[in-house]
Amino acid sequence: MKRLKYNIISQKIVAEQKDIPFIRTNSKSNREYNVFIEVFDTDYIKSFFETFDVSALYAILILDLEHIFIDANLSFISKFKTHDKQIAIVKVEPNFFTTVNHNNRNEISKPFFFRSNDFEQLDLDKVLSKSLYEREIISGNFRKIVLTIDPLKILANKQIDTVVEFYINRTEAFLEEVLKLKEHTLDVNADYISKIEISLR
To answer: Which residues does 116 contact at the CB level (< 8 Å), separation at least 6?
Structure first.
């Protein structure tokens, strides 16, 4: 029997902090969140991003100090220096996602995206000071401290409507578990991108 090919699988759930998949957070919130998950085959990238709304989409980039920011599809707004990194806040332009393909899909997993219809009222310094934190990556004898962002602490700001993150290189078994699918629903020969959007309930 021929396996069905799923270009995209979407799910909406209501979850407490501990039950939200993919994300890492230090938040101790007892609130419930609206969670929208989309998992799509990289063959579907062009079609997916043709309808992806960027009208109120911003991004936070964590860059090395020596990095020179040049990207015509990201409009630079502000820059901060902390933890030996530079943090760039940018407005995402419509063409940013049109250049994404299978080979460079890692580029969309680097920024931390959020939606805001009241961006001018955001105190960016305060937002970053409360949401940035360091975590340790350990793999065998390898250890590294990385600076990252807590999505739920970002969402605690009333001017931010939604946080958005993209994930790549997750196994089919992991994605099936997240989506509560039967085993072997997803094609092991395909490559998938996962998008999660979270908002306060």
So the answer is: 56, 58, 122, 159, 160, 161
